[in-house]
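pinging the channel bc i need a second pair of eyes. not urgent but kinda urgent?? the chain im working w is below, pasted from the shared doc
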Amino acid sequence: MDENIEKLKQVVNSSGFPLQIGIEHFVKKTSDGHGWKVLYKEHSWKNPNSNNSGFIDLVLVDELGTSIMVVECKRVQNTNWIFLLPSERQKRRRHARAWVSRSNGDDNAKFFDWIDITPDPFSPESMFCVVPGQDKKSRPMLERVAAELIEATEALAIEDLHLFSNKHDFVRIYLNVIITSQFQNG
């Protein structure tokens, strides 16, 4: 019986769910210090523009309800994600893209698109990620994860627009976040 339990634990631990659950618990436990709360977990989405669908691991909202983090948790196993940084300058980048929705209380959005932002704090930015052992002919894993996260963010923004736009003025900024179980600074 103990052997079966150990096998089941290995199966569960090989998935990304323990990381996702851990992040969720951490956000809830430390919410008073940073103001973010878990709005949804395993949130179903369907993008009406493409008919693609899936689940967002976590959706976090700030204390004002204007900033949303769309979070994808990925457990890295038996490999490394190697991000190439060709210059020291790229370690201190303050550039990102965010989805912004703005409505004045009617059914039409005043602004509804991606914009460039300068987030604080800075973060390293890499254009290239190498994953050893990845099939060279298939689309890189990080690109697949990021593309689905972008599509999920757009679907969530569309959902929110329909829920909130005819009730009151609102502004929401959606940030895409990929959290991984691997970190190495070097």
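so Residues 2-180 form one domain. and The chain has a mean pLDDT of 84. — does that match what u expected or am i reading it wrong
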